[in-house]
Amino acid sequence: MKRKSIFDTLLPILAVAALCCASPTLRADEDKKPVPTAEPKKSDAPKKEEAKNAKPDKKEESKGDAADKKDSKDELSETTNSVTINGVEVKYKATAGTLMIKDEEGKPHVSFFFVAYTRLDETNANERPVTFSFNGGPGSSSVWLHLGVLGPRRVFLKEDGGLPPPPFHLINNEYSLLDESDLVFIDPVSTGFTRAVPLEDARKYHGVDQDLESVGDFIRLYTTRYKRWDSPKFLIGESYGTTRAAGLSGYLENRFGLYLNGIALVSSVLDFSTISFNAGNDLPFVLYLPTETAAAWFHKKLPSDLQADRKKALKESEQFALGDYSRALMQGSALSASDRRHIIKEVARLTGLSEDYVDRADLRIEAHRFFAELLRKERLIIGRYDARRTGPNVDAAGDSPDYDPSFTSVLGPFTATLNDYVRRELKFESDLPYEVLTGKVQPWDFNSARNHYLDVAETLQEAMTHNPYLKVFVANGYYDMATPYLATRYTFDHMGLPPNLQTNVSMGYYEAGHMMYVNQPSLVELKRDLSAFIHSALPAK
């Protein structure tokens, strides 16, 4: 019996995420199945009926009323601090706490946890941009973008993003985006400290449309409470957070008439057919190939002519993937023997794998197999979120790795520092566990999926058509094997934007993985690109 790997267990939770992404298999017909509910035990019935008919105890009733009132209140902590960015001191107010989302009758539904940073030396809030940020999963809090790139504090890691020795700590983030925009970090339902009210209702929010509604309602409420309706507004999402951001571009417009100035997509996935390795779907095999070439180049597994020039290797891989390779996979069993031999040879050449392995895989290399196969002789696996990272292959004969070394290198530092920071510096107290990355949102309801795969590219296209000032920036890591860069490019090339709006989309490429900002040189470049993007999307004065 095949030993179940950690990928079999965690992929539905981690699948596309900066550490934070969406599930790779998005079968609408499967995900729409109703979740079974347990039948009450017969012995419970008399107790329930007895409780129903019993007179309420006044003391207990008053306690319950007090608890309800407490639960329905916002809890906020405000502190002030400063950070030096580009040699300039930026003073800011940090607000950490909860906003209660209620219906029009005043009934509480969700207690949303957020952390907001507002620059103090800006006198005209109407001209000051505000950026709402979140990660993905589904099931991830906003900790990664918060303490990795955007906020005024960031996690200390090795320069290449590697794991430092514990205990972990934060440092001032000289690359924070706070000099360009106020920042609001949102934890979706069941992540971070965000909880449904009552808790048993949480499942109602664990789905594509439900998530858009709840996060969109928070953005609307924050914008109203803090008087930011006249401010330029941006979204920055990572991984499944990019899916959420594209969906919100439509929800915010259609529900509240709220138009955005810009959306930044970090490690993007809008069309899930581009990354889902399912029977009958050859698209991911094509779109992953150049990232596999990049990984093989980094680990010195390519032939000498390609190893000498990574730019040349990637260009050749892209051309082959979209040309001969794509045509070959489209033919299936009709592919001639001579053409098959040619494809086997080229795939092996561009991936660093053996021709025998490519042949046995029927020309199709699934990503999880590539993680285990590329460095199998060295008994190493490579990372999914960052193919540069390696770890011991504890199951050297297995098809899939037992863990992701690029995930384990960041989980501990981000978890520890967030839990300390929110209490020690932001002065927000809670006995709840901060859910950095939780499986409690599973199964996720992909109710908007079409033809088996969720696709929100059309939603973004419509939002850009209705609001021709909306600009989009996409950040891609060359070594990201969760949301490969060619899949993102393919999605935007097929979005159907009219020519006059295609220039509203710009892309950046970084020498790192899914969380490109944990790599110090890429962090510097990403800050530069995000700053330029914010400026490009602001109205001319």
Quick rundown:
The protein is of the alpha/beta class and 541 residues long. The protein contains 18 helices and 14 strands.
Fold blueprint:
Blueprint: H1 6-14, H2 28-31, H3 44-53, H4 58-71, E1 75-85, E2 88-102, E3 108-119, E4 130-134, H5 143-150, E5 153-155, E6 170-172, E7 182-186, E8 195-196, H6 208-225, E9 233-239, H7 240-256, E10 262-268, H8 283-298, H9 304-307, H10 310-331, H11 337-351, H12 355-360, H13 367-373, E11 380-382, E12 390-392, H14 405-424, H15 457-466, E13 471-477, H16 485-493, H17 499-502, E14 505-510, H18 520-537
Parallel strand pairs: 4-7, 4-9, 9-10, 10-13, 13-14
Antiparallel strand pairs: 1-2, 2-3, 3-7, 3-8, 5-6, 11-12
Helix pairs in contact: 6-7, 7-15, 8-10, 8-16, 10-11
Fold and architecture overview:
The model is unreliable at 1-70 (pLDDT under 50). This protein has 541 residues and is an alpha/beta fold. The protein is globular. It has helices at residues 6-14, 28-31, 44-53, 58-71, 143-150, 208-225, 240-256, 283-298, 304-307, 310-331, 337-351, 355-360, 367-373, 405-424, 457-466, 485-493, 499-502, 520-537; strands spanning 75-85, 88-102, 108-119, 130-134, 153-155, 170-172, 182-186, 195-196, 233-239, 262-268, 380-382, 390-392, 471-477, 505-510.
Core attributes:
two-stranded antiparallel ribbon; 541 residues; disordered N terminus; 14 strands; 16% strand; alpha/beta
Low-pLDDT stretches: 1-70
How many DSSP E strands? 14
Structural category is alpha/beta
Tally of helical segments: 18
Report the radius of gyration as a whole number of Å.
24 Å
Could you give a short account of the major beta sheet? 10 strands, mixed
Q: Share of helix among residues?
A: 25-40%
